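Long-time lurker, first post.

We've been arguing in lab meeting about whether pyridoxal-5'-phosphate would sit comfortably in this protein at all. Half the group thinks yes, half thinks no, and nobody has a model to point at. So I'm putting the question to the forum: if I give you the sequence and the SMILES, can you give me back a predicted structure of the complex? Inputs are below. Any interpretation is welcome too.
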Amino acid sequence: MTAPLATRVHLNTAGAGLLSSHAVDTMIDVLHAERRDGAYETELRLDGELNEQLYGELARLVGAAPDDIAYFDSATRAYVSTLPLLKPGPGERVILSPYEYAGNLLSLLALRERHGFTIDVIPLDAEGDLDLEWLEKNVDDDVSFVSVPHVPSGCGIVNPVEEIGRILRGTDTFYVVDGCQSVGQLPVDVSALGCDLFTGAGRKFLCGPRGTGFAAVSERLRAALERGSRDLHVSAVDARLAVEDRVHTARTLELAERSTAVAMGFLTTLREAPDPAGVDNASRAAELTALLTAVPGIEVINPGRRQAGIVTFRHDRVSPAELTAALGECGITVWTITGAHTPQYMLDRGVTTAVRASVHWYTTTAQIEALAAALRRITS
Ligand SMILES: Cc1ncc(COP(=O)(O)O)c(C=O)c1O
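Top reply:
Settle the argument with this. Predicted structure of the protein with pyridoxal-5'-phosphate, as tokens:
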């Protein structure tokens, strides 16, 4: 695959990856077709792509059955359209990690307020890895679900989703993995993980368009979810107000309306995405971490023994916002993260803001060296 056209050094794939020219052209072509032929008519013409191939590609990507896939406009939408329908009760527990994304936390806390379950948080060991012995001891019949991000928003740790899957295998506890920052840069196989809900965004390491996300929802979880409201692509209501459910796949969790252009751009992205097994962001991140650690005053925030393509850091004198702005002037795009987006881990350690540099298959060693050299100049 050819590197996307970029005039800057793009080190913010964890925000949004770079679209390929092909994906952009696909979206523009759809918009022209909608203007020329009508939007509904264009959608009808693309029925096979929109209603089969998109689901087939997502299923292939994460090792799920096509019927388990629901398409959404963001990863948060995927999470909040699914998990709250599980409704754990007052006697039940939910287990999270300290790396949980704030958007997911907000929906879980609202759910706890209504249903009164308890939230337990997996402790970390000295390296910042999840204490799996604790998890093993604490998973019991009263645990409704365990939810962990594969890779969090604020730092590059790769959580041990395979080991957690092994611990939960054979239990009645549902297993939720937020793959927003992992899908596209790490291989994912939800059936091997035994994962009941996997959520992802299209715009990050998959490099798809904004406004795309998806969930893989196991049949076991779907059967346990309360019936939510359904839209017209899956259900019908007659003159006597009798409801008929026509579709029984994970698509029952979606709303019907979506942008055809964006969905087609996403499908193009999925078709041409490099095999994540060959995307070695861990090496790129290690290269970057080594260079940053050698810059005087830089502290790299990288908990855990295993890392992916996110490297977060701050300087003892120059603020993250100033660093981001100064790097921007050097043609290098990084992002100032807020600790409140990964509140339990970051805020607990006094990290309110930091700089996040994220690498991907299109990041070169020269670009990584350029970032380190620019940081030296800016902070000297
Ligand atoms: C780990 C993680 N989960 C979920 C989300 C939410 O994704 P979205 O903005 O597509 O809802 C993000 C966004 O940065 C994230 O980093």
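For your lab meeting: The chain has two domains: 9-18+277-379, 21-272. The CA atoms of residues 67 and 132 lie 32 Å apart. Whichever side wins, do check it experimentally.
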